């Protein structure tokens, strides 16, 4: 009887308009949605998609490759990129697929994973500004450095210079992680495009030419630092920071990048003829 009377009094208090009831009600109305939203956002954090970065000098075929992977059509005319562009693609773990078109089908068997393919401008005044920003991204899983194997003899200096900057940025990225959380290892694919052309160099020769030119660039930059008038105490650290690969080595090889958890692969192909399956397989292993 006493409990019923107490319940009756409590209900009468709640239902009777008063200043205290209005304040409590207002707090519930305004604070409850905020608390619910905070709880959901904390319990189900947003996960960014992994990304593959397309870089390289202009004319290498970056935008054409993106169009081919997105639409399956290599005949579509493309233009030189002025700003970074990205598309969402799906890769399947089905190892029975014979072409990238089969492996990229959403209805293909196996586990499907989404990723972003990011195309960056290759023009000298634009590339470092955009590409290096993506190199530092935590979602980056791999870099495809596309170059024209048919005109490499004429564009070797520019192609190697840009590649030097990309590899050095990755090298510094790994070195920076030694004092905190080590970043994900980033692998690089040197995609030697346009092998359908008679003047194209084979992948093995593309590799040797790039290694030789990267070695010359390394020596030139080191000598430039010595001739710049920098104090002797500062030369050692600055030279080492800007030295690509094994410090002090006479010749540069891509194998030296393994010291920094960077694997460099060289694979030939042709966007025009749709021969990009090996490049797609490389992407699948990174995602």
Q: What proportion of the residues is helical, as a percent range?
A: 40-55%
How would you state the average pLDDT, rounded?
A: 79
The H-and-E topology, N to C, reads as HHEHEHEHEHEHHEH
- Strands in their spatial order, largest beta sheet: 2-3-1-4-5-6
Could you characterize the architecture of this molecule?
This protein is an alpha/beta fold and 287 residues long. The protein folds into 2 domains: 2-43, no CATH class; 51-286, 3-Layer(aba) Sandwich (Rossmann fold), CATH 3.40.50. The chain contains 9 helices and 6 strands; from the N terminus they run ααβαβαβαβαβααβα. It has a 6-stranded mixed beta sheet, sandwiched between helices. Strand 4, helix 6 (152-176) and strand 5 (187-193) form a beta-alpha-beta unit. Helix 5 runs parallel beside helix 6 and helix 6 packs across helix 7 (203-226).
Short précis:
The chain has nine helices and six strands; from the N terminus they run ααβαβαβαβαβααβα. It is of the alpha/beta class and 287 residues long.
């Amino acid at each position: 009887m006493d409990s019923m009377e107490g319940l009756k009094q409590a209900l009468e208090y709640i239902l009777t308009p008063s200043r205290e009831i209005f304040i409590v009600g207002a707090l519930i109305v305004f604070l409850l949605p905020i608390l619910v939203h905070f709880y959901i956002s904390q319990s189900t954090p947003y996960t960014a998609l992994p990304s593959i970065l397309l870089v390289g000098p202009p004319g290498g075929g970056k935008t054409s490759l993106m169009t081919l992977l997105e639409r399956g059509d290599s005949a579509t005319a493309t233009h030189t990129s002025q700003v970074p562009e990205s598309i969402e693609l799906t890769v399947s773990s089905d190892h029975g697929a014979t072409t990238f078109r089969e492996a990229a089908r959403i209805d293909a068997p196996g586990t499907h994973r989404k990723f972003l393919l990011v195309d960056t401008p290759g023009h000298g005044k634009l590339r470092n500004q955009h590409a290096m920003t993506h190199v530092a991204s935590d979602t980056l899983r791999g870099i495809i450095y596309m170059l024209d194997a048919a005109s490499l003899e004429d564009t070797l200096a520019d192609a190697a210079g840009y590649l030097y900057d990309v590899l050095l940025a990755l090298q510094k990225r790994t070195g920076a992680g030694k004092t905190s959380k080590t970043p994900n290892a980033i692998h690089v694919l040197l995609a030697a495009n346009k092998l359908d052309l008679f003047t194209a160099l084979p992948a093995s020769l593309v590799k040797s030419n790039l290694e030789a030119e990267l070695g010359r660039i390394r020596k030139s930059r080191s000598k430039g630092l010595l001739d710049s008038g920098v104090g002797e105490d500062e030369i050692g650290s600055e030279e080492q920071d800007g030295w690509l690969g094994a410090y002090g080595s006479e010749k540069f090889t891509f194998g030296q990048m393994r010291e920094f958890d960077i694997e460099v692969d060289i694979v030939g192909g042709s966007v025009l003829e749709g021969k990009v399956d090996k490049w797609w397989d490389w992407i699948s292993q990174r995602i």
